[in-house]
């Protein structure tokens, strides 16, 4: 296990930025404070990188690109498999670090972290099988295509899954032959620094993985840098619009994985216990802070009362507390601002006439967790489609339940609003479930399950939830350009201006 991982789990560790294979001193002494959301206490600081720091990190990525991109995919795969092994060895400490910084229960982080190496291994494997094509075409020509990496790329990662979302992006980018500069969220910037150091420890060449920490100005400098050739962002829709505008000005391609307001359709023939258990997981894992959290439940009238009673009782039984304790099931939300937003939306839902059926009691935790940013899992029933709680993303453990009678009504309710990322449909009638999936707007649809993710399962949304795909071949190819080479095989030559009638 790496000493780097051990060091960063200690409060106050600030090694600097990470680029060119080492921790680097930033241009200024400006820092950003990182808070433990379970106690509201300061945990550490990270540098607030300047445009000059960004220039240095991108320069390191550019210098490394020539060698990394020239490696045969088989050799790159060997590097990446070793990286996956090193990450796997450090999972216990990485899980602790993620739990400290994000507030998520350690039990939950251990389960998620166990799968992290799979993304690196998967992209290392499929990159070896990426083949070009050739065709004999009209007029005595052969066209050949092959894939080439783009250059240094920018990976902008969020605070809710700092390592998971980083490896989803980084695995594809590196396997394709690119080098990367990572800009993590200022709320959870620590584990990406550790991941970069582990990449070097695993033998990846210096400059292949680089990290600049900082606030919005750091991200803006990175996105606007003339030697960044792809931008992959996971974040809020407002940030996505800004980044997309910068990328559009530079004509740089992007992947945008943005917000969501995930509908959960529960049909009258659903396995009620399974739908309640799955709905509970969809809504409250990670304290409801995922882009595909089950947020608005659309439940058939025939089972509406039973579903409401069941999920409300289960929600009130969820244990909050110290994220490091084995008995804790969910932790706090990420910040005071997030806690305040949840409280405001709860108050608005009450004022709008929605009926609160779970989450009325205070968390009532002992010190120091009484100062943390906790919100009890909260359930409202009889929420109307024009109300804020039905339409707007909470990004916390607060859900709505609305009844429906017909499939047409269910689809209309599910498609209300501007988002289109995740959806889950619960029905024992597979024909009905599939029929509904065809009519609903969303990029990732689960039938009788939720939240399941795999490096082979394409992931991405539409409309205000973004564009482009993570996972699978789509993600790998997005980090490459497809080049066409046309070879003349016909004898002789043409001379248009001497009378030849061949054109094209």
Under the CATH scheme, the architecture of the largest domain is 3-Layer(aba) Sandwich
Give the C-level CATH assignment of the largest domain. Alpha Beta
Radius of gyration: 25 Å
Distance between the first and last residues' Cα: 61 Å
- The count of DSSP E runs of length 2 or more, i.e. the number of strands, is 20
Number of domains: 2
Structural shape: globular
**Ranges with pLDDT <50 over ≥5 residues?**
none
Count of helical regions: 17
CATH superfamily of the largest domain: Aldehyde Dehydrogenase, Chain A, domain 1
Instruction: Write down the CATH topology of the largest domain.
Output: Aldehyde Dehydrogenase, Chain A, domain 1
Helix content: 25-40%
Structural class: alpha/beta
Beta fraction of the residues?
15-25%
The major beta sheet can be summarized as:
7 strands, mixed
Mean pLDDT rating: 95
List the strand order in the largest sheet.
Answer: 14-15-16-13-12-17-18
Characterise this structure.
By secondary structure, the chain is an alpha/beta fold. The chain has two domains: 24-258 and 461-484, Aldehyde Dehydrogenase, Chain A, domain 1 (3-Layer(aba) Sandwich); 262-447, Aldehyde Dehydrogenase, Chain A, domain 2 (3-Layer(aba) Sandwich), CATH 3.40.309.10. It has helices at residues 3-8, 51-70, 73-89, 91-102, 106-113, 116-127, 162-175, 190-201, 216-223, 237-250, 272-284, 301-316, 336-351, 388-391, 407-414, 430-439, 472-478, and strands at 17-19, 22-24, 31-36, 41-47, 133-137, 141-149, 152-157, 179-184, 209-211, 231-234, 254-257, 262-266, 294-300, 355-358, 378-381, 398-404, 422-426, 444-447, 466-467, 480-488. Strand 7, helix 7 (162-175) and strand 8 (179-184) form a beta-alpha-beta unit. The longest helix is centred in the first third of the chain and has 20 residues, at 51-70. The radius of gyration is 25 Å and the shape is globular.
């Amino acid at each position: 296990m790496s000493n780097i991982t051990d060091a960063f789990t200690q409060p106050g560790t600030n090694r600097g930025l990470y680029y060119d294979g080492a921790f680097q001193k930033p241009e200024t002494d400006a820092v950003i404070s990182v808070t433990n959301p379970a106690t509201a206490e300061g945990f550490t600081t990270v540098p607030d990188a300047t445009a000059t720091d960004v220039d240095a990190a991108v320069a390191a990525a550019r210098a490394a690109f020539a060698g990394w991109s020239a490696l045969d995919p088989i050799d790159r795969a060997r590097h990446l498999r070793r990286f996956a092994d090193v990450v796997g060895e450090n999972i216990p400490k990485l899980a602790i670090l993620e739990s400290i910084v994000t507030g998520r229960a350690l039990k939950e982080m251990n389960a998620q972290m166990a799968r992290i190496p799979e993304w690196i291994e998967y992209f290392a494997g499929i990159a070896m099988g990426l083949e070009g094509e050739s065709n004999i075409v009209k007029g005595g020509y052969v066209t050949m295509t092959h894939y080439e990496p783009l250059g240094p790329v920018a990976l902008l990662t969020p605070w809710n899954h700092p390592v998971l979302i980083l490896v989803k992006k980084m695995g594809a980018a590196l396997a394709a032959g690119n080098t990367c500069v990572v800009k993590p969220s200022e709320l959870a910037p620590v584990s990406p620094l550790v991941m970069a150091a582990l990449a070097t420890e695993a033998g990846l060449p210096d400059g292949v993985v680089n990290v600049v920490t900082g606030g919005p100005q750091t991200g803006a400098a990175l996105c606007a840098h003339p030697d960044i050739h792809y931008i992959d962002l996971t974040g809020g829709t407002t940030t996505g619009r800004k980044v997309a505008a910068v990328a559009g000005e530079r004509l740089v391609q992007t992947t945008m994985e943005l917000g969501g307001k995930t509908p959960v359709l529960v049909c009258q023939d659903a396995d009620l216990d399974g739908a309640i258990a799955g709905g509970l997981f969809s809504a409250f894992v990670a304290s409801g802070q995922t882009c595909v959290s089950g947020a608005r439940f659309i439940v058939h009238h025939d089972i509406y009362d039973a579903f409401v009673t069941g999920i409300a009782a289960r929600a009130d039984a969820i244990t909050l507390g110290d994220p490091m304790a084995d008995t804790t099931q969910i932790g706090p939300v990420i910040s005071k601002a997030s806690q305040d937003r949840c409280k405001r939306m709860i108050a608005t839902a009450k004022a709008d006439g929605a009926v609160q059926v779970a989450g009325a009691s205070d968390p009532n935790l002992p010190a120091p967790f009484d100062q943390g940013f906790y919100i009890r899992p909260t359930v409202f029933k009889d929420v109307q489609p024009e109300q804020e709680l039905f339409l707007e993303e909470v990004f916390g453990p607060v859900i709505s339940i609305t009844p429906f009678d017909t499939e047409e009504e269910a689809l209309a309710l599910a498609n209300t609003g501007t988002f289109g990322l995740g959806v889950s449909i619960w029905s024992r009638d597979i024909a009905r479930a599939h029929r509904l999936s065809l009519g609903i707007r969303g990029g990732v649809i689960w039938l009788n399950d939720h939240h399941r993710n795999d490096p082979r399962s394409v992931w991405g949304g539409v409309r205000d939830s973004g564009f482009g795909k993570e996972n699978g071949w789509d993600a790998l190819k997005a980090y490459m350009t497809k080049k066409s080479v046309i070879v003349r095989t016909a004898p002789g030559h043409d001379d248009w201006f001497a009378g030849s009638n061949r054109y094209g």
